[in-house]
UniProtKB/TrEMBL annotation:
<keyword id="KW-0274">FAD</keyword>
<keyword id="KW-0460">Magnesium</keyword>
<protein>
    <recommendedName>
        <fullName>FAD:protein FMN transferase</fullName>
        <ecNumber>2.7.1.180</ecNumber>
    </recommendedName>
</protein>
<feature type="signal peptide">
    <location>
        <begin position="1"/>
        <end position="28"/>
    </location>
</feature>
<dbReference type="InterPro" id="IPR003374">
    <property type="entry name" value="ApbE-like_sf"/>
</dbReference>
<keyword id="KW-0732">Signal</keyword>
<dbReference type="InterPro" id="IPR006311">
    <property type="entry name" value="TAT_signal"/>
</dbReference>
<keyword id="KW-0285">Flavoprotein</keyword>
<dbReference type="InterPro" id="IPR024932">
    <property type="entry name" value="ApbE"/>
</dbReference>
<keyword id="KW-0808">Transferase</keyword>
<keyword id="KW-0479">Metal-binding</keyword>
<keyword id="KW-0449">Lipoprotein</keyword>
<dbReference type="GO" id="GO:0016740">
    <property type="term" value="F:transferase activity"/>
</dbReference>
<dbReference type="Pfam" id="PF02424">
    <property type="entry name" value="ApbE"/>
</dbReference>
<dbReference type="GO" id="GO:0046872">
    <property type="term" value="F:metal ion binding"/>
</dbReference>
C-alpha cells in the first residue's frame, strides 16, 4: 500500500455547467482560486463568496500549512519521515506526524492490515525489480513504536510511507485554515478533496479520462484510488498500490467519502486490496464513511 504521484482520477469543477448537471444552483458569488504543488500533487483551492483580501489571506496561510505537512510526511526534502526512515528513530516528533501515524494504526486495524505504511521497502524493491523477499520481511506495523516523545522502528531496514493518507491530511489541515479565516464555502483539492459548505461542489470520479461517477460534495471529503493509475517496476506493469502481506489488488478503482480527507484517503487505498465483505467491516469502524464508486478488475 503506497502511492506516488499519479494521474488525476478526481476531477473537481466550479463551472456553472458542472453545478447545473448535478442540480446545484449556479454560483452567483465571486470565485477566488489558488493553485500550487505539494506532496507530489497539484493543489487547487477555490473559495466561493467572501472578500478578495480574506481569500488571499487564506491562500497565504494555506501555502505555509502545505509546507508544514511536507516537512513532516514527505518521502523527500529531508522531512521528519525521511529522518525516521534513515535513523530508525525520531525523538520529539511533530504533532502532525504523530496524528497521521495514529490514524494509520487505526485504519491498519480496521482493514485487517491492508493499510500498512511499513510496506515502503517492498514498494522500492518492486519499483527497482530487486528481490522482494528480504524487503517483505521488513514489513510489520506491530514493530512501529509510537509515543508522543518518540517514534521508533524496531528492526533495522524498516521504513514507512504515508503516501496513502498525507494528501488527505493536508486537505484537512487546509480546511482548518479556511475556517480560521471565516470562509464557509470552500473546495480543497490536494489530490484528495475536502469541501466546506452546504451548497455543494461538483466532483467527478474518473478512470483513464472516462467518467465513473458524478456527485456533489457538501461538508465532506472524497478520495479515489486506482492501483494501475500509475504503474511501477522495470517493465512498468506493476500496480503502485500493494500490500505488505502479499494480497493481490482486487479493484481497478475505489472511491470513498468520509468526514475527513485523511480517513477517506487511507480507506480508499486499502479498499482496492479488499473484497466487499472486508470493505464493509472496515467502513463500519468509521461511522459515516462510505464507498461512492467501485470498479472491478
Amino acid at each position: 500500500m503506497t502511492r506516488p504521484t499519479r494521474r488525476r482520477i478526481l476531477a473537481l469543477a466550479a463551472a456553472a455547467c458542472g453545478l447545473a448537471a448535478l442540480g446545484l444552483p449556479a454560483a452567483a458569488a465571486p470565485l477566488h482560486r489558488w493553485e500550487g504543488v505539494a506532496l507530489g500533487a497539484d493543489v487547487a483551492l477555490m473559495v466561493r463568496g467572501g472578500t478578495a483580501p480574506a481569500a488571499r489571506a487564506f491562500f497565504a496561510e494555506a501555502a505555509r500549512a502545505l509546507r508544514a505537512v511536507e516537512a513532516r510526511a514527505s518521502l523527500y526534502r529531508g522531512s521528519d519521515l525521511v529522518r525516521l526512515n534513515a535513523l530508525g528513530r525520531l525523538a520529539h516528533p511533530g504533532a502532525d506526524l504523530v496524528e497521521m501515524l495514529r490514524l494509520a494504526g487505526a485504519v491498519h486495524a480496521a482493514t485487517g492490515g491492508a493499510f500498512d505504511p511499513t510496506v515502503q521497502p517492498l514498494w522500492q524493491a518492486r519499483r527497482l525489480g530487486t528481490p522482494e523477499g528480504p524487503a517483505a520481511a521488513l514489513a510489520g506495523w506491530d514493530d512501529v513504536r509510537l509515543a508522543e516523545d518518540e517514534i521508533r522502528l524496531a528492526r533495522p531496514g524498516m521504513a514507512l510511507t504515508l503516501n496513502g493518507l498525507a494528501q488527505g491530511f493536508a486537505a484537512d489541515r487546509l480546511a482548518e485554515v479556511a475556517a480560521r479565516h471565516g470562509l464557509t464555502d470552500v473546495l480543497i483539492d490536494t489530490g484528495e478533496a475536502r469541501a466546506l459548505g452546504p451548497t455543494g461542489w461538483p466532483a467527478e470520479v474518473q478512470l483513464d479520462g472516462a467518467p465513473v461517477r458524478r456527485l456533489a460534495l457538501r461538508d465532506r471529503a472524497l478520495a479515489t484510488s486506482a492501483p494501475f493509475g500509475t504503474r511501477i517496476g522495470p517493465a512498468g506493469d506493476g500496480a503502485h498500490i500493494l500490500a505488505a502481506d502479499g494480497r493481490a489488488v482486487r479493484w481497478r478503482l475505489v472511491s470513498v467519502s468520509a468526514d475527513r480527507a485523511a480517513l477517506a484517503d487511507a480507506l480508499s487505498t486499502a479498499a482496492v486490496l479488499m473484497d466487499e465483505e472486508a470493505q464493509a467491516r472496515a467502513l463500519a469502524a468509521f461511522p459515516g464513511a462510505r464507498i461512492e464508486a467501485r470498479l472491478a478488475l
